[in-house]
Amino acid sequence: MNAAHWLPLLAVVAIGSYFQAITGFGLGMIVMGVCSGLGLVPLPLAANIVSLVTLASCALALRGTWHDIDWSATAATISGILPAILAGVVLLDYLNHAAALLLQVLLGLAITTSGITFTLRPQPLERRSGKGSFFVSGLLSGLFGGLFGMAGPPIIFHVYRQPITLTAARSMLLLVFAFTAAARTLFVVSRGLPSGAELLLTGYAILLACLATQLARRYPPPLAGLRLRQLAFSTLLLIGSCLLLGALHGLFA
User: How many domains would you assign to the chain?
Assistant: First the structure.
């Protein structure tokens, strides 16, 4: 793969980083979705790049917002996500193809239904949920992440429904995904270092991601709170629909 083949991937990374800096999520979903659909780079390489880019872009996006984070809810979420990711990976080894696709159908249905509901009525809850609910949403996110590489939707839905500022919601999601990316990166590195070309590509991706993140911080889109929540839920609705259609195609093909 020569440098000319890197340009589409780098463009997608920049777009995903801008979106994530605004909403708190989306980089991994956008990059992995496009790479899977267009075959820009091998998916394991794309996943490794996303993990490292997430760490860099989240660190930049979180600058000056640490005081907005709900640390107890974040800790509860992370304590659910990290072990559940491993459980999801192990469970995947024991499921046959049809069972895995059926679980993906259920995940797609849940995300799509929730997305429709919250897109039409994006008002947050009246009271903040307890730490136990954040732990459960973390468990679900980690389990789905281990099974399908799609850890985001459950915790994104849960956080965006809370009666907190959008800055607090975005900062919490960024920190949660940074921890998840760090854990994955440590696991990957323990199995062997990437090649020089992969490191160079990752370096360019991190540079563009940081530039896009800084651009989003200085020039965010003119969206009010409810409109931004609608954007978040609409994006998840699209993701859920794609998951559902892909799983149904696999079941009946």
Answer: 1
How many whole angstroms separate alpha carbon 225 and alpha carbon 166? 7
Q: Which domain holds residue 195?
A: 3-252
How far apart are the C-alpha atoms of 180 and 194, rounded to whole Å? 19
For the beta carbon of residue 69, count every other beta carbon within 10 angstroms: 19
**Do residues 18 and 216 touch, judged by C-beta distance below 8 A?**
yes
Cα gap 233→242, rounded to integer Å: 14
Residues 6+ apart with CB under 8 A from 172: 24, 69, 70, 73, 74, 77, 159
Instruction: Place 145 in a pLDDT band, splitting at 50, 70 and 90.
Output: confident
Query: What's the average model confidence in pLDDT over 229-247?
Result: 78
**Sorting pLDDT into bands at 50, 70 and 90, what band is 225?**
low
